[in-house]
Amino acid sequence: MSLLLLIALPLLASFLMPFYRRYLRPVSLGLDLGLAGLVYAFYGHLPVQEMVSFSSPLSIVFRLDTASYFFVALFVGIRLFDSLYRLREAADPSYFIIGNLFLVGVLGLLLSADIFNLYIFFEIASISAYIFTAMKQDQQGYAGAITYMIVGSVASLFILLSIMLIYLHLGYLTLSAIGAGFHTLDTTMQHLILILLFVGFGIKAEIFPLNLWVADIYQAAPIRVDALFSAILSTAYLFLFFRLVYRLHPDPVSLHFLSIIGLVSFAVAELSALRSRNLKRIFAYSTLGQLGIAFAAFASTDPMIVAGALFLIGAHSLAKVLLFLGLDALHDAGGSVQVGVFAVFRSPFLVTLFAIGFLSILGIPPLAGFIAKLTILEGFAATGHYWIVGSILFVSLIEATYFFRLLSSRARAETTGGAKPIDIPLAPGRMFLLGLLASLLILLGIFPSDAMALCTHAAQTFLSGVPHV
Amino acid sequence: MIGLLITGTFLLLIVLAYVTVATPYLASSVVYFMAFGLGSTVLYFLFSAPDVALTEAVIGAGVSGVVFLVALLQTQTREDDA
Amino acid sequence: MLETLNQPTYLHFVITVGAFGVFAIGLIGVLVKKNLFKIFLSFSLVESSLFLFFIGSHYDVGKRAPIVADGVMAFDHRMVDPVPQAMILTTIVIGIAVLALGLSYVVRYYRLSGHTRIDQMDELGEAS
User: Fold this and answer.
1) What is the ipTM of this complex?
2) Domains in chain A, number
3) Which domain holds residue A102?
4) Which of A88, A350, A403, C3 could pair covalently with A358 via S-S, beta carbons 3.0-4.6 A apart?
């Protein structure tokens, strides 16, 4: 078993695609099953560390610890789900190739333990995300892809500059060596590097002052791709940013600043969602809001709160995949993603799914999101940050307003029977898969202990060596 | 001597960067950009980085300029009227 | 006179100031220019300035290229650090890939919309 397989298998599958073009669907499913099996096989052996070549300070090192394992398992699981969901569709070679590159980029980001490899995988993930955005091949798609490229290039320039400064002043590229030597730099240089990293990763992790472009990208991309962006890409960058920041031992003031930024991010996103009439944009803003809470929670350096944040990210990813795939079915039948379409479709099954997704994100018992928010709030209360608890609860009210407005617009339409309802045809296999996802959200809400134990363990690994603030 | 060369090349590069951004004609802007690539090739040679210099000569002064010109020919825009 | 220009302090000052001059010009181009071609050109300038800065900062007068050939049998301290050069090679290639992808999207966008200006790009937003 080698960690390299997680990177090499999808890459090989992409490059060899012309040879098995006719068997693309079985190969694609086989690849995802294989990756899932591989991830499962690593479960008992954490942490795994692998040196690919050369001797120590310049070697290429892959490392999988419990914290990154949490994300690897989540992403490979979502990918397998996506692959099962499109099982009955005609295979799309370009989606297969770009999807594999995307997965390689994200897994590489999680696995690589040296900062220049991080940059390379960062670029791979970014390029595949640009191509994903333009996948509809219409004017909106290209406009979105160009916007995304301009913003993404700024982010990669900032990250490149910070990597250059780190190498220039320390002479190391491996993360552990950088972490050990970072405090020997003078304070100005430390702050400069931290600010550059914050801008670079903040753009990619969609944090408040740097996330004004995100809703446009979600609007431009196909809905299936939005599910991947929301569930995989932004969460990966969020995790990565904090892993880097924790390595560099930031001072309490910076961390405090970061948690305030997370809360502001949450509030601004939910306010924007309140104003929006486009379901894609609303879901995008809701993603930004949830990431804002997770950001604030990560910055707290308290194991319990960080465990809650990991649980929140997991629950949010599952709920967003559910919501976006439901929206995809809605869009296929109704042809629109405006709020109006939500009121007039006829499918009790989909309504239930949407309700479960919304309520989980909102944090209503007995759904997974409730446990996550409860843990985070309890943690903040236990450490005496009552104002954070208050502001999260207050902004959740705004969140509740637009979710219930959406749901009640349905109820009104059903009683008055105004517009002509649209039927949503949904294949039984897809109904089963979506139902499975929804019941997973409920199950995680009722029996959270196993998942919570994994999150707690991951949080402890994540925070090991970080001074408690 | 080498210090003078480096200083001079940097001054040239700044001028070239400025005209690349400032000129209203897109085609001449691309040509200035290719000249910029050539100038940085010289700098990489002075910095004892011949491998980077070769790559920059091919990619910076050659391929990227050609990519820009081909893209310009595909569109009918000639001038940047901003 | 010429010898003072070879001093490491002076040289690194020139490299830093020169690279950040190009960086600033490029960044202003990215922010101010409205034509997509100009924006991508400016990005390339900014990228090049970072490469020049990084390679230049590892150079001192008298250091040779890190190549083991022509009677030189091993690496020593009179050679420049080869790692930044390897990094920059990789980054240059990534840069041209992103640039080509971006320009191809600009061309396709032009075919559908008839313009290449970022301030007229209003397909996305609440209204549409």
Assistant:
1) 0.93
2) 1
3) 4-463
4) A403
